[in-house]
Amino acid sequence: MPKTKSAKNNDKLIIFSDIEPFSGIKKAIQSGRRDVLETVRDSNLKGRGGAGFPTGVKWNLAAAATSEKKYVVCNADEGEPGTFKDRILITEHAKLFLEGMIIAGFAIGSDQGFIYLRGEYRSFLPILEKEISLLRKNNLLGKNILGKKGFNFDIELRLGVGAYVCGEETALIESLEGNRGEPRNRPPFPVNTGFNGNPTVINNVETFANIPHVITKGAEWFKSFGTDKSAGTKLLSISGDCKKPGVYEVPFGISVKEVLKLCAGQDAKAVQIGGASGVCVVKKDFNRKIAFEDLSTGGSVIIFGKRRKMLEVAGNFLEFFKEESCGQCTPCREGIPVLTEALSLLKNGECSKEYLKDIFSLAETMELASKCGLGQSSAKAFVSIINNFKDEYNLLKSDNKRKVFNG
Amino acid sequence: MDSKKPFGQDTSRAPVSQRTSRAVEQDDKVLGNLVKVVIDDMEIKVPLGTTLLEAARKLNIKIPTLCQHDDLCLAGVCRVCVVEVEGQRTLQASCSYPVFNPMKVWTYSPKVRRARRNIIQLLLRNHYGECYSCARNNNCELQSLAKEYGVTTYKFGHIDKSRYDKDQSSYSVERDMNKCVLCRRCVRTCIDLQEVGVLEAAHRGSSTKIETYQDRPLNEVVCINCGQCINRCPTGALKAKDPAQDVWDAIDDPTKHVIIQTAPSPRAAIGEAFGLPAGTSVTKKLNTALKRMGFDKVFDTNFTADLTIVEEGTELLLRLKKALVEKDKSVALPQFTSCSPGWVKFIEHFYPEKLNHVSSAKSPQQMFGAIVKTWYAKKHKIDAKNIVSVSLMPCSAKKFECERPEMNDSGFKDVDYALTTRELAGMIKECGIDLPKLPESDFDDPLGIGTGAALIFGATGGVMEAAIRTAYELVTGQEVPFDKLRIIPVRGMEGIRKAELPIKKAKDEWKFLEGATLKVMVGHGTANAKKIMDLLCEGKLSDYHFVEIMACPGGCLGGGGQPIPTSPEIREARAKAIYAEEESLSIRKSHENPIVKTIYKEFLTEGPCGHLSHKLLHTSYTPRGKWIGKLKKK
User: Fold this and answer.
1) Active site residue ranges of B
2) What is the pTM of this model?
3) B353 min Cα distance to partner chain A (Å)
4) Chain B: residue nearest A328 by CA?
5) pLDDT in tens, B333-367
6) Is the Cβ–Cβ distance between A381 and B133 less than 8 Å?
């Protein structure tokens, strides 16, 4: 298992910085709900799962919703190819994100939390079960937490069964409810009608892990990291052709070049930022920054060295999506096989210029018209690889030999 | 429990995620607020939570749809109806996107047009089969989309081999998944509209397929044959089993005496297949067409509908007598109707322990079959084995019903073939007969007289109305106390309706009913049947006497064999036509049907529910339960 490594010579930034366990909850109880909501909002903390929705806005919406029952859900369905940063948080820093969940429960007025754990992480169940029972023992979960009357909160563990799409929050809720894991129509959003139709806050493990730090150390301290539009730090799961793969905490705004230096991967010809649903960045763009305003990512960084065949890489991602599409909406379900076929035409030098134009038009449709974020990003890696590595394939000049799928 | 809304608007049965009104359900304060939407530079104010599709329709803007259906909860899966909303990065499915603040929308911008064309191309890619060999040729929503949205070549390829075997195991419904475009209307119909739950999406990604439990054939699952999925399938993936060729063979065989009975609902709907507006009744023109086609006799199912009322009504009164006078606790009340074969199979599967509540009277179709091959054959000196008995029904479940092994009390198969409205329309067209322009003609003797009471069997509440007219008069000796015999409380399209009728004065024979109040309930669509059955199981129906249930929304006129498309408006129009036609008839009470009187005098001499009646006109049921056959090993 990769070891936790922080950037800049063991500089501890936010998540891995020192903190007294459960000081966040104590401070939250002391200062009250409104204060917590304000601090989270002022910190500009954005969702770390990749979409980057402002956490403060989400929490405030859920807090304002009038409903007897509200839920806090921790999205631990870490399924994006090439990401393993939540795994480190779960196995080594479980207290941190559990505390974040309790604070969320306090802030929005929920008494029930769920951890939706990726099926493949089944082996971490005992760790979490142990942590949760410790929390219960210490009255950090249960009734009247830390003596605060009426502050009730408990956490239930739920396992997924390996569907990538269940990382999408509405599909996750469907799965939690016991249905086939398929994304819902949005709006309305989970903050209004989530689990069993009740207001639900869903955040990534890493988002929750930031919360205790934000509460104890304040919004201003938090904002001193990162860029104007992307406050704080990001955990990156770095893998591929580099000498020092692992989980790194880096401040937002760091360039791809700097990331490569950290992990000793300077020989890279391309870096896939954001996993299968992300984009492929080529050498000339290595000055681009990891931040919501530039390269937004859930944390997956896959490095490709000089010898890698990029069409194979694209094919690999497409195979992944073909397997993992929920099959609900047309563009994603039917579009991915078309891209796969086009890729094999490209590999064999049988794809014409005109057909490639059709394929790019289809990719645009998939991005614009798919039902959920996963469908919308399923063509992204393909498009960026085909656009960036024109020297790795040849196009047919005429349309005569254009081959298309028939059967 | 009461379901006041028409089917399309009542999405309470749908999963939370698919309820159309979900956006506004959260905050009742803002319900009814008007929001300004600008669609293609036209402005309209709509109530908060209205979908963009509804708003566009109010402006007469046509947005293409495929997975959306007015009877069903929303899905937003086909993405054909995408539109561009100002400020949104992606396109939005207009069928499921609620208006929650003022917005600007474009329905045919370049982005939208490109996306739509690509999506339709994708839908066609795996749609196997040639249009000209398809039952839905010229009435296919996918075909229309392809035509209207610029498909000239298969840009992304087209499958040329069949991937799945057709499922022809059911007597009623055929499935060809090669033509399925995964819009999931059938799934939503089966799960949400009918609450039967036979069909569901299985597997993922490009392997997704609509399957039954364990992918079993339809005859091995709890399918009730209602055919509502057929009526809502946009393509030819679902169709009814078509016996047209067998019927032609019989007509062409000079040794066969081929009779056809026609039910009231197809007569109010078949015109739609010939371009007439919904709600045009063509009963007498249809008679002409059938005679020209070569049927030896054209009879009216209404005759046995009247017979059903007399038999079923008598059975009810006998049950009441047993319960109230003889204090027999084993009598099951309320009594449920048994005319709808979809409903019968529903209760056989889902509430088999309650089958004793169902009237033992056969449906009008089956009574007709039994009478034709006995009384009619004898009277006209025709060997019953040479009679081919055909029925025109609005229903796919009738096909299953006439194949039931218990339905051969005449000594032969009582009804040989049940044709749906769609199938007969095809046969008429094959003869080049232009139905709307035909002269009118009457039914043949002797089984050609039906009353108005029988005619309204076609609409939900009709059987109940007919039964009340007869039973009330039988008991009190007086006509029902309703203006023009219109028993309004049992009419309408609400899912479940209730009515009460006090019996102030009874004839001597029925003195025990004097002072009692007759309580009845009407439900249509098996989702509502389920609600009623759950009440029965909770013991909350003990003071009710008679319950009418029709498996299909709207009753028979919305049956699974009726012309496609269907919608709340179309069903209302058909109902209107039926009620209008009934008021034009001179006899409007079943017991006054002269042929019914004759048959009890000449043939069923022991009277209603007598020995011969029981043999020919009554039946028994099979408690099927939810498990059929053995578990399939994977």
Assistant:
1) 312, 315, 339, 359, 398, 401, 406, 556
2) 0.93
3) 29
4) B77
5) 999 999 999 999 999 999 999 999 999 999 999 99
6) no
